[in-house]
Amino acid sequence: MAQKEVQQELTVDQYTLGLVGPDQEWAGTVADGGTIRTHTPPACWGPMITPEFRGGHEVTRPIRVENAEVGDAIALKIRDIEVTSVATSTGSMSEREDAFGDDPFVDHRCPECGAEWPDSVVEGTGEDAIRCAECGANASSFGFEYGYTAVFDDDRTVGLTVGEEGANDLAERAADAMALPPNSRQHPILLYEPSEMPGTLAHLRPFIGNVGTTPPVEMPDSHNAGDFGQFLIGADHDWGLDDEADLEKRTDGHMDVNAVREGAVLVCPVKVDGGGVYVGDMHANQGDGELSLHTTDVSGHAELQVEVIEGLDIDGPLLFPNEADLPHIAKPHTDEERERGRQLADEYGVDAVDELGPLQVVGTGATVNDATENAFDRAGSLLDMTEGEVRARCTFTGGVEIGRLPGVVQLTMLAPMDRLEERGLADLVRTQYDL
């Protein structure tokens, strides 16, 4: 039952079992302009190896936002991100085909007794540690094709991959090392103790991989995107979809865009009354594209301020990243650059130099090309532009970046401020970029 009491500050410490949608129990209601605080458990690997989960992530229960109605949007201003895990394991995955039906992330079953989404227990460490509580068989549907374990310094600025001894030590205290919140129901991936690639040092910069609003249909949380969502089309389980049109109901919370970090503003569509904001899948770091499909999943604290934008009526997320994360070509112009622009305008008879502001439109699809086409469509609808104009502006003042392979992109441009003004976004852009 939805909690209707409006709170200026709402702390959420309850999580779903891998699903997002209108059937999930609400965590509470936060005021328009209020603050959400969470301590989220790791996503991806932990839920993936825990057969009780219906999806590949463990995200918060949905949060109702005061005044948010279908056709509005919600701006999520990421005020703080703090990693609490001291280590994690990750890598590229292999699938145990006898431990699932259509989808290894979704319809789990015990390979011996056939129990669906079986309760499981931990026996020892390693890739055979997750056991069916009924028959004792290895019940996890995933292992590592190539895996590694990384530890973090106290300030969470660097991570170092460790060898067998370090990985085994962390596996023996896996839940504590990953700082699993008390209400988390996943098995920690450190149990698998992978130890390839030891001695590799990496920069850390945490971000949130799955954050957004509730779709109007129930779906696995990891599949709330145009690429992972392809696995739902024609699937023979409770969350299967008939066709691509059904997938258009997604809200694209699962982006894995590494610019969704502290200081960024993410604007999300409202497709159920109240919005249903949820948060999860924090990562310690990730290169563009998330090329192995997984990265450094961690527990962490997040603080977000919410603001309803009435009538924006967008189909998918808009991102206003930190200025440092914008491509050079899409950064706000300096005073000197604007003055040079005015001089060129005078010389060549141009009436005025347009006021412009950075904008990123997130697109998703089966492939990167499909995701880019989706972003073109979304940008054109948002700004009342033809695809030709969108392509031209993005070529001249922006570009396309890959959030995740196979199909999440950020389409960037310097957008005319008068168009942003018409859509109620201009003040947000001016504040974000000090224009």
Secondary structure layout plus pairing:
Layout: E1 6-12, E2 19-20, E3 28-40, H1 45-48, E4 63-65, E5 73-83, E6 87-95, E7 120-122, E8 130-132, E9 142-152, E10 158-161, H2 164-172, H3 174-177, E11 201-203, E12 207-212, E13 219-220, H4 244-247, E14 265-269, E15 275-283, E16 300-309, E17 318-320, H5 335-348, E18 356-364, H6 368-383, H7 387-397, E19 399-404, E20 408-416, H8 417-422, H9 426-433
Parallel strand pairs: 1-3, 3-4
Antiparallel strand pairs: 2-13, 3-16, 4-15, 5-14, 5-16, 6-9, 7-8, 9-10, 10-11, 12-15, 14-17, 17-18, 18-20, 19-20
Helix pairs in contact: 6-7
Number of strands: 20
Given the structure, what is the number of helices? 9
Structural class: alpha+beta
Can you give the mean pLDDT?
A: 97
Helix content: 10-25%
Rg result: 22 Å
Share of β-strand residues:
25-35%
Shape, please? globular
Seen as an oligomer or otherwise, the chain set is: single chain
CA distance, first residue to last residue? 43 Å
Q: Which runs of at least 5 residues are low in confidence (pLDDT < 50)?
A: none
The string of secondary-structure elements, in order, is EEEHEEEEEEEHHEEEHEEEEHEHHEEHH
* Main sheet characteristics: 12 strands, mixed
What does this protein look like?
- The two termini are 43 Å apart.
- Among the domains are: 117 residues, no CATH class; 111 residues, no CATH class.
- Helix 6 crosses helix 7.
- The mean pLDDT is 97.
- With 435 residues, it is α+β, with helices and mostly antiparallel strands.
- Helices cover 17% and strands 29% of the residues.
- It has 9 helices and 20 strands.
